[in-house]
Write a structure and sequence with these properties.
Layout (H helix, E strand, L loop, with lengths): L5 E6 L3 H12 L4 E5 L5 H6 L1 H19 L14 H25 L3 E4 L2 E5 L2 E4 L2 E10 L3 E3 L13 H4 L9 E4 L3 H12 L5 E3 L11 H13 L3 E3 L4 E6 L5 E5 L3 E5 L1 E4 L3 E3 L32 E3 L10 H16 L13 E3 L5 E5 L2 H7 L3 E8 L4 H4 L5 E8 L5 E7 L3 H13 L4 H6 L21
Parallel strand pairs: 1-2, 1-6, 2-3, 6-16, 8-9, 8-14, 9-10
Antiparallel strand pairs: 4-5, 5-6, 7-15, 11-12, 12-13, 17-18, 18-21, 19-20, 20-21
């Protein structure tokens, strides 16, 4: 029996922290956790979950419009922001209770309060000190808003889920997942939506063909895209509206400015200065393959280490950590072929290499690509299109990248990611019988090369 109060103390109870705590306790460790803000972390409270609920809500406008082609009479539905916001809060409260219950059922000792590292084996919470053999930092990340004149008038993704009033003219600044998704959410809920990005095209690390295709689709939906645009200042008008001043396009009037320009590792005020934990320039904690920091008793995982900032990745890292530390099964993470989705409208689903990365890594590749109007829209009247792309290593026939833009892309790409993990070749896809009529069957019927 260790002479410490606990075998493991987990700082932060997001998805990664909770999974690490539960599994470590399951493997026999005496575990404690602490959290001073969100039970369930960013994903549950101000991230994936409420965002997806908002995406569902924003899509109903198109469903109403498209229903006429299927014989439904035209209607003029009204949207009530407060109902959506409050119903979302009820669901988040339920999930908060679920997460707390999971810790309790695993017999994890939980502290409500901010945990700070005192030394390599001591944690303080609310003036109380406890000792622990190992410390796991799973504090996640925090939205970053750059400092510029008027930046205090901008909100982040943390605040957008709790707005008192729905904005009529929102301006979203950024080019990643959150920015693109919220530009679509605002538009779908009835706002005049603007998206400003400093680069020539958003979603920088995605496949170039996907990026261009999505930009065209969002433009068709009436989202105002402003590329190569830099905000220099925000001013508040006499009527409490905002004036967004840009270097390239002059001024934009708005009643809300949301910055989605990245997230930084949440290492502020957790006591890192008291121990020898190395970090990168952006604050990300440096860890080895087993999530151990330069301080042997301290570990870290999830967004705070800045590898792949996705909830399922943090959960997988937590499983690897718990097995290594408390089951005596050294386990490392495989970050290859991690699938992801962007819940813009239409959705993006992607797994594996982009075309540009594949050309750098392989001597010769084959590209199979299809763009078409989905069956539903033959009657709906919508001109929305779907795009699908398969990238193949010519020498081995292995599928090394799959990308899609279209309804339920994330659901479809999840299945394709399993196939890629299993080593699927293009020949295997070709031999698979499709489900007709579906969009997904296109992935097993593409035969003609689009480029080399």
């Amino acid at each position: 029996m260790s002479h410490y109060d606990f075998d493991l103390f987990v700082m932060g109870v997001g998805s990664g922290g909770v999974r690490a705590a539960r599994m470590s306790a399951h493997y026999g460790a005496r575990v404690a956790t602490a959290e001073d803000l969100y039970m369930g972390g960013t994903c549950v409270n101000v991230g994936c979950v409420p965002k997806k609920l908002f995406v569902y809500a924003s899509h109903f406008t198109e469903e109403y419009e498209q229903a006429q082609g299927f014989g439904w009479q035209k209607s003029s539905p009204g949207f009530d922001w407060q109902v959506l916001r409050d119903n979302k809060d009820v669901e988040i409260d339920r999930l908060n209770g679920v997460y707390r219950g999971m810790l309790e059922s695993a017999e994890v000792t939980h502290f409500d309060g901010r945990a700070r590292i005192v030394d390599a084996h001591t944690i303080s919470i609310n003036e109380r000190r406890v000792s622990t053999e190992k410390i796991l930092i799973a504090t996640g990340s925090w939205p970053f808003i750059p400092d510029f004149p008027g930046s205090e008038y901008a909100i982040s993704s943390n605040e957008v889920f709790h707005l008192e009033e729905f904005p009529k003219r929102p301006v979203v600044v950024g080019g990643g997942y959150i920015a693109v998704e919220f530009a679509g959410i605002f538009k779908g809920l009835g706002a005049e939506s603007h998206l400003l990005y400093r680069g020539p095209l958003f979603l920088r690390k995605f496949d170039d063909g996907i990026r261009s295709f999505v930009a065209d689709e969002l433009d068709k939906k009436g989202i105002h895209l402003h590329f190569n645009t830099n905000v220099t200042a925000i001013e508040k008008n006499a009527n409490d509206t905002l004036k967004v001043i840009t270097a390239e396009e002059g001024e934009l009037e708005a009643d809300l400015v949301m910055y989605a320009t990245g997230r930084n590792p949440a290492i502020h005020d957790i006591g890192l200065e008291t121990v020898k934990v190395d970090t990168r320039a952006d604050g990300a904690i440096i860890v080895d393959d087993f999530f151990q920091t330069s301080e042997p008793s301290i570990f870290a995982l999830g967004d705070v280490i800045g590898r792949v900032q996705l909830t399922p990745v943090a959960i997988a890292e937590a499983m690897a950590f718990a097995k290594t530390q408390f089951l005596n099964e050294p386990t490392t993470m495989d970050y290859d072929n991690v699938a992801t989705a962007v819940f813009c409208q239409p959705n993006i689903g992607t797994v594996g290499l982009t075309e540009a990365d594949a050309r750098q890594k392989y001597d010769a590749i084959e590209i199979y690509q299809s763009s078409f109007r989905p069956m539903k829209h033959t009657l709906s009247g919508s001109d929305e299109r779907t795009m699908m792309k398969i990238i193949v290593d010519k020498a081995t026939d292995l599928v090394i990248g799959v990308h899609m833009v279209g309804p339920e892309a994330g659901e479809i790409i999840q299945g394709m990611s399993i196939a890629m993990k299993a080593g699927a070749t293009k020949a295997i896809l070709d031999s698979t019988i499709g489900i007709h009529p579906t969009t997904a069957e296109e992935f097993v019927t593409m035969r003609e090369l689009s480029s080399n």
